């Protein structure tokens, strides 16, 4: 198609509509071919390429399922309260308050304000990490020869900074992240044991307990020992549901969690949001 | 070594200082079993700050001791542990706050002192705000992780007079909250004073 004229260039550009790529958002999300919920409830349907990132604002009560399609995804996650981003994920409080360093079904992702940001309501992977954070430009340049966002081996922090910027946030706003699908365990002497992936198809489902800004970078775990940069697609699906309420087993699972939910609803009620 | 300054930080108090490249900061647990919450920043660019995950990943473990390099979020060295009488310091538990205390112990703890308030007040003197606070080091605090991931603050390993020494690899700003927590064994349930000494090699 001739692109030497404005009309030709326009026709060429428009002819691309309908192209399918392996990694892309489906818009509207309700067009996703195999929804895990009532099809009309889907609000986010995307496949994130290895070495790429995504971000979305999700309403309280939304469920978010991340799936490691081929076994080499690693979802590095940051959460912020959507309209007050100074309240954000606190990994230290998350592990300390719940008396456990590992993530899995029933675990709460806590903010730095004694409230719940999200609940982990399902987990078929069991390989996650709260300790090592994500990769950096310096580290990826050293390991793979390049860590820039547009290069062949982007660093997670570089991508999270871009996702943050698109939500009006700066590098200072980024606390330590956590990651799903590449596991790290602690040995008795405090040293780390990289346990890697559980294999293709592992999934984790989170439930938003407040309106959230979600940032995700899909990049290799910093402790991945392989010399090559291996990062495969991550599926992201989200659908409308309801936030955890009194009577839900998760609400009463632990005294610390119960107080975190009480703090959350108390705060939202005062704002007229719950 | 030439002494640059020695200051005693009262129980529950905050403290801060710039430590110049090559200088050594020695933290002495005067009475034993006192947790010292600690954050550090590049003194010339505070967006470059201590990163617990980078430090943990780079050294391959969660406990700090002699030889541990405290890395920034840019994966660059800020300070190195050059001497340690205790052998284990915490990188995982972060700071206590009035908010997290309500989860950990109950809402009756809300009016108690907490480290995040110390960090906010001391950091404000340098233009640092809430978003500049990240997972911190807890010198002397003992946080083991069991095989199933169970983790908790347990009785400390420190004793009166024990110390840890840190060499600055660049000019750093250090913020300290001498932990006021009274609901767990990090302070033996009774906060006490610590001493901060900055020194430099003679002639340096």
From TrEMBL, chain A:
Q: Which InterPro entries does the entry mention?
A: DUF1989, UAAP1
Signal peptide limits: none
Q: Where is this region: Disordered?
A: 1-21
Q: Where is the DUF1989 domain?
A: 46-212
**A Pfam family that the UniProt record links to this protein:** DUF1989
Q: Which domain of life is it from?
A: Bacteria
Matches recorded under NCBIfam families: urea_degr_2 (TIGR03425)
Q: What is this protein called?
A: Urea carboxylase-associated family protein
Species source reads: Streptomyces chromofuscus
Taxonomic lineage per UniProt? Bacteria, Bacillati, Actinomycetota, Actinomycetes, Kitasatosporales
């Amino acid at each position: 198609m001739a692109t030497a004229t404005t009309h030709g260039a326009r026709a060429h550009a428009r002819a691309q509509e309908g192209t399918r790529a392996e990694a892309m958002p489906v818009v509207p999300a309700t067009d996703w071919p195999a929804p895990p919920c009532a099809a009309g409830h889907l609000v986010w349907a995307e496949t994130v390429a290895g070495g790429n990132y995504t971000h979305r604002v999700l309403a309280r009560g939304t469920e978010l399922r991340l799936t490691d399609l081929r076994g080499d995804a690693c979802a590095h996650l940051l959460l912020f309260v959507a309209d007050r981003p100074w309240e954000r994920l606190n990994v230290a409080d998350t592990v300390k308050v719940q008396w456990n360093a590992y993530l899995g079904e029933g675990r709460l992702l806590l903010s730095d304000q004694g409230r719940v940001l999200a609940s982990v309501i399902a987990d078929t992977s069991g390989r996650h990490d709260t300790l090592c954070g994500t990769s950096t430009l310096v580290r990826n340049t050293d390991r793979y020869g390049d860590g820039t966002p547009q290069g062949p081996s982007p660093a997670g922090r570089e991508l999270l900074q871009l996702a943050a910027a698109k939500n009006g946030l700066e590098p200072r706003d980024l606390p330590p992240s956590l990651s799903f699908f590449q596991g790290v365990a602690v040995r008795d002497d405090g040293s780390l044991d990289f346990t890697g992936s559980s294999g293709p198809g592992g999934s984790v489902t989170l439930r938003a307990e407040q309106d959230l800004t979600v940032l995700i970078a899909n990049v290799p775990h910093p402790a991945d020992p392989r010399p090559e940069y291996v990062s495969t697609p991550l599926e992201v699906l989200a659908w409308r549901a309801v936030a955890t309420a009194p009577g839900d087993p998760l609400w009463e699972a632990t005294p610390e969690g119960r107080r975190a939910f009480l703090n959350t609803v108390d705060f939202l009620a005062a704002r007229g949001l719950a | 070594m030439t002494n640059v300054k020695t200051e005693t930080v009262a129980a529950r108090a905050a403290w801060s200082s710039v430590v110049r490249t090559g200088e050594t900061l020695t933290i002495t647990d005067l009475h034993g079993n006192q947790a010292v919450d600690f954050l550090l920043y590049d003194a010339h660019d505070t967006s470059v700050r201590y990163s617990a995950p980078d430090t943990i990943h780079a050294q391959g473990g969660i406990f700090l001791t002699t030889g541990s390099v405290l890395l920034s979020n840019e994966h660059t060295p800020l300070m190195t542990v050059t001497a340690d009488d205790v052998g284990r310091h915490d990188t995982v538990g972060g700071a206590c706050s009035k908010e997290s205390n309500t989860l950990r112990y109950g809402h009756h703890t809300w009016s108690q002192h907490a480290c995040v308030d110390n960090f906010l007040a001391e950091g404000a003197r340098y233009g640092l705000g809430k978003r500049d606070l990240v997972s911190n080091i807890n010198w002397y605090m003992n946080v083991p992780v069991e095989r199933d991931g169970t983790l908790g603050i347990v009785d400390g390993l420190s004793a009166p007079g024990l110390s840890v020494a840190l060499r600055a690899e660049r000019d750093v700003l250090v913020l300290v909250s001498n932990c006021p927590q009274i609901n767990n064994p990090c302070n033996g349930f009774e906060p006490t004073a610590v001493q901060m000494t900055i020194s430099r090699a003679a002639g340096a």
